[in-house]
Amino acid sequence: MNVFVTGGTGYIGRPLIRALLERGHKVKALVRKGSETKLSHGTECVVGDALKVDSYTNQIAPADTFVHLIGVPHPSPAKAKQFQDVDLVSIKVATKAAREGGIRHFVYLSVAQPAPVMKAFIQVRRQGEELVRATGIPATFIRPWYVLGPGHRWPYLLLPAYWICQLLPPTRESANRLGLITLAQIVNSLVSAIENPPEGARILTVPEIRTCTFRQETGSRVGRK
Hints:
This protein has 225 residues and is of the alpha/beta class. The protein is built from seven helices and eleven strands. The strands form two sheets. A nine-stranded mixed β-sheet has the order 3-2-1-4-5-6-9-10-11, sandwiched between helices. The chain has a two-stranded parallel ribbon with strand order 7-8.
C-alpha cells in the first residue's frame, strides 16, 4: 500500500514507519526542513509545514492512505493553547490535503473519551474527528489513553490501581477504556488498520487496540487481525 504519514519522526511515527516498510508498503513522510535524516531508510521524504495550508498537498500522490500522528508531545492540562495551535491546526490542514490529494482511507490518532481529566486535549481531538468525518473519506479513529514505551514508563506505577478498578463493576468500564497500552500494541493496531481499510468510519478503543478488533461507529464488529 502507499501510505502518507504526518508525525513520522515522533514517538509512534518512527516505529510505525519501520513496521510498514518491513511489510513491503511504500511510505511517504512529512518532515520539517532539517529533519530528513530522522526518517527510516527507504522512506520517501516530503519537506513541508504541517501547520500551513497546501504546504504538502501536491506531494501526497500516489498515497491511498493518510496517517495523521501530529500532536503536542507529552500532553498535559497546561498545554491547552498548544493543542489549539498545533493539534487542531494540523488536522485542519491534513483533512484538506487528504481530500484534495485523493486519499481513500484516513487514519487519525485520537484519544480515549470521555475522561475526567485532559478535557482541553479531548475536545481538540473530538474536533479533529469531526473534521475527518466531514471529508467523507473512510476513516479509522484510534483512541488510546497512554502509550507505554521508552521514556513513557512512569504509569506502570498505576497498574495496581487499574487492576483493582477493573475488578469493581462501577469502575470496570472506565478502567478498560482509559487503560494503558504498549508502543508495540499501538503500532500493531495502526498497521492492521492500514492494511484493512473500512468502508465507512470505525473506532479502535483501548480494548480493541490490544486485540486489533475493529468496530464500526454503530458498534458492530467488522473484522479481526
